[in-house]
Design brief:
Layout lengths: L7 E4 L2 E4 L10 H5 L2 E3 L2 E6 L2 E5 L1 H14 L8 H14 L5 E9 L13 E8 L9 H4 L1 E5 L20 H13 L4 E5 L5 E4 L3 E6 L2 E4 L10 H12 L3 E4 L12 E6 L3 E8 L2 E2 L7 H14 L10 E3 L2
Parallel strand pairs: 8-9, 8-15, 12-13
Antiparallel strand pairs: 1-2, 1-7, 3-6, 4-5, 4-6, 5-17, 6-7, 9-10, 11-12, 11-14, 14-15, 15-16
Helix pairs in contact: 2-3
Amino acid sequence: MSEIRAEKVWHNGELIDWDDARIHVVSHSVHYGTAWFEGIRCYKTSRGSEVFRLPEHIRRLYDSCRIYRTEIPYSREAFQEAALQTIRANNLEACYIRPIVLRGLGAIGVSPRPTKVESYIMVWEWGKYLGEEALEKGVKVCTSSWNRAAPNTFPTIAKAAGNYLNSVLVKMEAEVRGYDEGIALDAHGLISEGSGENLFLVRDNVIYTSQLVHAILPGITRDSVLTLAAELGYTVKEQALPREMLYLCDEIFFTGTACEITPIRSVDDRPVGAGVRGPVTEALQEAFFEIVEGRVPDRHRWLTPVR
């Protein structure tokens, strides 16, 4: 991925220059991973620039902070408006949005409670996370040797920076082994998710996905796919899934803000179905993109206009 850059960053209520958006090396988040963030997309639609499920993303950010006893000193509505303000300030029609709340200066001990809470919102132009061709041709993945955290260790419902050290291990292992992405199992050996994506499996036209108890992030795109699948008439089952289901499926696809809906063409060098994007994945992609591109009315009120 090329270097990202924009003109302005929102910091604690003010727009500052990109190069001035810095934190101190003694910030608590640098030493202990105490930062909570979101990934959100703004799409160029037929109606203008619109942000996909902005209130839901900001709510999840506030939920993540609440789990870690961190209070954001702005209302959710004010934070949403700050995201829109940052997009406008950078004159971007389509972009990726990264709000982040972190623990800064104040103490270097494990407890973050004496430290200052800092809030930033960054935006930048960003294409397809797994590549332009991935949406059609799919990606090659492996099952990682690294498992997700056991229950009552790290709260996986929180989108916390420290949690992503596990994702880093999953992703790097996949890359050095020649794969595009890795799939992690949970502490009990059941299917969890990708390094930064939720996972769906299709067998005999039934769609399966893991439950939240299997150490997955409650994805906003995942939730959208559940809604769209029901509208298209598919049966969707959220349940425990053994690893071998990865080798028996007709289709598998990732979902997430960055990857959107990306098919998987092989797992552990075994082709998924015919080794190409399947009809269920394609139907869900079409339903998703016609909404986010503004080709159909926003019947779910998922899009927030930037202006």
